[in-house]
Write a structure and sequence with these properties.
36% helix; Rossmann fold; glycosidase; 22 helices; Beta-glucosidase BoGH3B isoform A; binds 2-acetamido-2-deoxy-beta-D-glucopyranose; TIM Barrel; alpha/beta; beta-glucosidase activity; five-stranded parallel sheet
């Protein structure tokens, strides 16, 4: 080639280079998705139109933190990360450590071609329950007993703030299951057996996400900014109706029953703008909910006009087949085709990417389905402002576990206490207790154990035992804080009869119940309080005047002991602020809680819910004695 030829080629190359870069510059200016002046719909449409299949499929994934890094997020265009139960960046990690981890993942997401931010999800189901020093609120069953939706909304707002204090933007809450059988290990995650009460308690959603504007179109999710989080109504649908309460099992009920019992919570959640809905592991009449096109696409999206995204449960795809992962191609095709948009695939995410890519390329799944899924996810991300503010700063750290939240939890505890028996007759009540007595006994496995008091989904998935890992007040400490300084409080976990009789106690407070559990590990066909609980009740209440406080995630077998017990309180799983229990025991406040569930006599009556023809409870749904605050109010 001669010089002239080379010059021509150079000019051509320079020209080409200019053209390419100029159009790139123009393109950047026209990137509508980056410009908040455009409507969210316009931004979603623009962004989806720019995405490759690979980028779209990555966006549909949520992976567990321990199996991913910033580089892997970038490599696979992954849209979201999560902590499974108990998955933490470091033992007793501080809020700053959590923020640093989330921001590190965010850097990976933002370094992709299109720079789509990720969000991070966690099970904050009774406060920010995985995080060291967070406020632990009562589990949902206790909140149901308060009958106070406005309180529950405030708890949602406090939880959102503590979650954001750690840089996290998404919570798998609320569980709006309508537990119809207390043998189910997740019954405490349910506000009530009554669909209407569950509907009322969806007020937690505007607490978590912010209030939806009055003119907001039907089904459109709404999250109001950097102190709010993405919420998730779960588990769609019928999770609380499985046979014998077996976790993840089959809910056998006709369509009318499903609509009347298990669906109303979703009507309310959607009208309050819930951003996401999680599919249930369970089946409806033998069809897995993760593969239920009729109920997910047909009913939820088309009939109810839900515009947020549907997320799978943790490894929910795997469990479409039995045994799990028997045919992952089938599972992915069934789940995506049913209408699930985002998939919690904690570990095997490259397999998901490969299989879904093949299914789209083979036209087993149309691109329109993928675009629908991605569009919904991006809608939520854009609407919550994460494109504009992808990184968490430390400004909210100060809200983790603050006194205001602990006071709120304490208020919730005292309002959730249900007084089931109070002395032999109404004119001889035992409660409220006198603050001044020479000597009293506190007994029981649950008197001085914050872990037991909080239940499952606390620090660890299955909960913990003891006081070392949690910040809060045990009921024993609360009693000591409350009685007159001249009252001697003797604590003995498991006293024998001789000890109880021979010490001149004025009365005893016995605190026993279930040990922590979560999900299937909590399924129980006998619903008995584990020993030595019953033995402690018998030893103490057989000898002296006693108040028994039951710490449990549900009604348990208590009928055989009621005759021995002078006063009986259902305290559910109250969480970190045990002072709320002493508040009502000693008359600082009156008892107001009402049973959110039917209390059975024997397990062979189950399932038995209010309105059933064979209804013959020990204590009916809605039962709860009240007391008046005593004159000797103490300051809180
Ligand atoms: C948790 O609270 C305890 C007691 O107030 C405090 O000593 C500790 O530093 C806190 N931990 C973190 C990580 O902030
Ligand atoms: C797995 O599922 C796919 C898609 O439904 C099907 O074509 C294939 O035959 C199944 N494989 C086995 C081993 O059952
Ligand atoms: C009751 O069921 C639980 C859970 O299934 C079991 O661990 C326990 O041993 C049973 N208790 C009795 C008294 O049968």
């Amino acid at each position: 080639m001669d010089l002239e030829g080379m010059a021509k080629i150079s000019i051509l190359l320079v020209g080409l280079w200019l053209l390419v870069n100029w159009s790139g510059l123009l393109d950047a200016k026209n990137m509508k998705y980056k410009n908040p002046k455009h409507s969210t719909d316009t931004r979603v449409e623009d962004l989806v139109s720019r995405m490759t299949l690979e980028e779209k499929i990555g966006q549909m994934l949520q992976v567990e933190r321990k199996y991913v890094s910033a580089d892997l997020l970038k490599k696979y265009f992954i849209g979201a990360v999560l902590s499974e139960g108990g998955s933490i960046p470091a033992p007793q990690a501080s809020a700053e450590t959590w923020i640093d981890m989330v921001n590190e993942f965010q850097k990976g997401a933002l370094s992709t071609r299109l720079g789509i931010p990720m969000f991070y999800g966690i099970d904050a189901v009774h406060g920010h329950n995985t995080v060291h020093n967070a406020t632990i609120f009562p589990h949902n069953i206790g909140l149901g007993a308060t009958r106070d939706p406005e309180l529950v909304k405030r708890i949602g707002a406090a939880t959102a703030l503590e979650v954001r204090a750690t840089g996290i933007q998404y919570v798998y809450s609320p569980c709006i299951a309508v537990c119809r059988d207390p043998r189910w290990g997740r019954c405490y995650e349910s506000f009530s057996e009554d669909p209407e009460l569950v509907q009322a308690m969806t007020e937690i959603i505007p607490g978590l996400q912010g209030d939806i504007p009055n003119d907001s179109p039907k089904g459109v999710p709404f999250i109001t900014g950097k102190e709010k989080v993405i919420g998730c109504a779960k588990h769609y649908v019928g999770d609380g109706g499985t046979i014998n309460g077996i976790d993840e099992h089959n809910t056998v009920i006709d369509r009318d029953g499903l609509m009347k019992i298990h669906m109303p919570g979703y009507f309310s959640s959607i009208s309050k703008g819930v951003a996401t809905i999680m599919a249930s592991y369970s089946s409806w009449n033998g069809v897995k909910m993760h593969a239920h096109h009729d109920l997910i696409t047909g009913f939820l999206k088309n009939t109810l006009h839900f515009k947020g995204f549907v997320i799978s449960d943790f490894e929910g795809l795997d469990r479409i087949t039995s045994p799990p992962r028997a045919n992952i191609t089938y599972s992915i095709e069934a789940g995506v085709s049913a209408g699930i948009d985002m998939f919690m695939v904690p570990k095997h995410y490259t397999e998901f990417i490969d299989v879904l890519t093949m299914l789209v390329k083979n036209k087993h799944i149309p691109m329109s389905r993928i675009d629908d899924a991605v569009g919904r996810i991006l809608w939520v991300k854009l609407m919550m402002g994460i494109f504009e503010n992808p990184f968490a700063d430390y400004s909210l750290v100060k809200y983790l576990g603050i006194q205001e939240h602990r006071n709120l939890a304490r208020e919730a505890v005292r309002k959730s206490m249900v007084l089931l028996k109070n002395g032999e007759s109404a004119d001889k009540p035992l409660l409220p207790l006198p603050k001044k007595s020479p000597k009293i006994l506190v007994a029981g496995s649950h008197a001085d154990n914050l872990g037991y008091q909080c239940g499952g989904w606390t620090i660890e998935w299955q909960g913990v035992s003891g006081n070392n890992l949690l910040k809060g007040t045990t009921i024993l400490t609360a009693v000591k804080n409350t009685v007159d300084p001249e009252t001697t409080v003797v604590y003995k976990e498991n006293p024998d009869v001789e000890f109880v009789k021979s010490n001149g106690f004025s009365y005893a407070i016995v605190i026993v119940g279930e040990h922590p559990y979560a999900e299937m590990y909590g399924d129980s066909m006998n619903l008995t309080i584990p020993e030595p609980g019953p033995k402690i009740i018998t030893n103490v209440c057989g000898a002296i005047k006693c108040v028994v406080i039951i710490i449990s995630g549900r009604p348990v077998v208590i009928e055989p002991y009621v005759g021995l017990i002078d006063a009986l309180v259902a305290a559910w799983l109250p969480g970190s602020e045990g002072q709320g229990v002493a508040d009502v025991l000693y008359g600082g406040y009156g008892f107001t809680g009402k049973l959110p569930r039917t209390w059975f006599k024997t397990v062979d009556q189950l399932p038995m819910n209010v309105g059933d023809p064979h209804y013959d409870p020990l204590f009916p749904f809605g039962f709860g004695l009240s007391t008046k605050p005593s004159k000797a109010l103490y300051s809180s």
